[in-house]
TrEMBL record:
Protein's UniProt keywords contain Chaperone: no
Higher taxonomy: Eukaryota, Metazoa, Chordata, Craniata, Vertebrata
Domain of life of the native organism: Eukaryota
The enzyme's E.C. designation: 3.4.19.12
Domain called USP: residue spans: 59-390
GO MF annotation list: cysteine-type deubiquitinase activity; metal ion binding
Coiled coil (UniProt feature): none
Main localization category: cytoplasm
Residues making up the signal peptide according to the UniProt record: none
Source organism: Mastacembelus armatus (zig-zag eel)
One cellular component term from this protein's GO annotations in UniProt: perinuclear region of cytoplasm
Family: Belongs to the peptidase C19 family. USP2 subfamily.
Protein name: Ubiquitin carboxyl-terminal hydrolase
Enzyme class, UniProt record, top EC level: hydrolase
GO terms classed as biological process: protein deubiquitination; proteolysis; rhythmic process
Length: 402
């Protein structure tokens, strides 16, 4: 099991050999360091590292009273490499110049991320972040017994995106007829229209495109709709064994459904409400794929939680079978999990994250950060999964206009 303790090997070089006579001037300008000076220098480095009890990115977040759901998501985002670097390098401030509103949320998020990666303390308080942006902590969070990490994630990403949106003047809304285009071309046109209004680092990383196909069972007419998504809410497949795979859940999400009775939509060709079939597929894969396992359900009687064990891969999750275009690369590696233990009325959130600097897995439980084995990452408490697209063997993946 990996340890928080770091080891260092110091090699002290021999005394430098005498320089040739014709290099006397150089010898006078660059006096050699003594062995004692070298040892003192290296020992100073070792002592300074030893004082840092929390290596980079291994800093906990104190619970401010029922804020474990927030802490869990913040740790997952802090371990998202490109988002972390966006904050550490203060690149976000360039995009803030375009902000039409108060950009305090992005600044607080960047400051918190910087503290998580530079603090020498074992834990820090997210009090400024917790109190400052009231839209993120609305009544739906504060009044519920079981704060929802997935809802908080959506609100946070949306808030951050609004403040670093590079679009300063939205084009006029135009109604275009895309029905004559192929699905692939229609998807590209819809994506470019989306980027004309929504273009930020958050979009670059987290937003994908979902394709919804609707087919009339009477006339056979098929229509397609393309929508951007921040995450995918995946139903948990139920099997008698009590254990399912992540692909089982994705297949349930993308399987063909029948819309009948009161759910019948209006067919564009028949001009009447018809029985139709509906199916989802992924038109454009995001660089960061967030999968929300739908463990909680509400009914008129009581709220319930599914504790089904979902077996998900840590590496090489290949999603090409769920792609609208089979040629698109869609292989992902897991790097973070937001967990929920407890029931629908209450519980506790934690996070498991693969530290991008150290390459090892750690458990983030509010103030406590501890090393863990990769074999411990899967559990029946897994709630929100964070996957990163693996780079193409031929070229680095980049999010761009299609």
């Amino acid at each position: 099991m990996p340890s928080l303790r770091q080891s260092y090997t110091v090699t002290v070089p021999e005394e430098p050999a005498a320089l040739p006579l014709d290099k006397a001037d150089l010898r006078r300008k660059s006096p050699s360091l003594s062995r004692s000076m070298l040892v003192s220098t290296f020992m100073g480095l070792i002592i300074n590292q030893a004082k840092n009890k929390s290596p980079q990115g291994l800093v906990g977040l104190r619970n401010l009273g029922n804020t474990c759901f927030m802490n869990s998501i913040l740790q997952c985002l802090s371990n998202t490499p490109e988002l972390r670097d966006y904050c550490l390098r203060n690149t976000h401030r360039t995009d803030l110049n375009n902000c039409r509103t108060n950009a305090a949320l992005m600044e607080e998020f960047a400051k918190l991320t910087q503290n998580l990666w530079t603090s020498v303390n074992e834990s820090i308080s997210p009090s400024d972040f917790r109190i400052f942006p009231p839209p993120i902590f609305n009544s739906s969070h504060l009044n519920s017994l079981n704060q929802d990490a997935q809802e908080f994630l959506r609100c946070l990403l949306d808030g951050l995106h609004n403040e670093v949106n590079r679009v300063t003047a939205c084009p006029k809304v135009s109604i275009k007829d895309f029905d004559h285009l192929s699905d692939d071309e229609k998807g590209k046109q819809m994506w470019n229209m989306y980027l004309e209004r929504e273009d930020s680092k958050v979009v670059d990383l987290f937003v994908g495109q979902l394709k919804s196909s609707l087919t009339c069972t009477v006339c056979g007419f098929r229509s397609t709709v393309f929508d951007p998504f921040w995450d995918l809410s995946i139903p948990i497949s139920q099997k008698s064994s009590g254990e399912v795979t992540l692909k089982d859940c994705l297949r349930l999400f993308t399987k063909e459904d029948v819309l009948d009775g009161d759910d019948r939509p209006t067919c564009k060709k028949c001009k009447a409400r018809r029985k139709c079939t509906k199916r989802f597929s992924i038109q454009k894969f995001p660089q960061i794929l967030v999968l929300h396992l739908k463990r909680f359900s509400d009914s008129n009687i009581r709220a319930t939680k599914l504790s089904t064990y979902v077996n998900f891969p840590l590496k090489e999750l290949d999603l090409r079978e769920f792609s609208s275009e089979s040629s698109e690369r869609a292989v992902y590696n897991l790097y973070a999990v937001s967990n929920h233990c407890g029931n629908a009325l209450g519980g506790h959130y934690t996070a498991y994250c693969r530290n991008p600097a150290l390459g090892e897995w750690y458990s983030y439980n509010d103030s406590r950060v501890s090393p863990m084995s990769s074999s411990q990452v899967r559990s029946s408490n897994a709630y929100v999964l964070f996957y990163e697209l693996t780079p193409s063997p031929h070229s680095k993946y980049q999010t761009c206009r299609l």
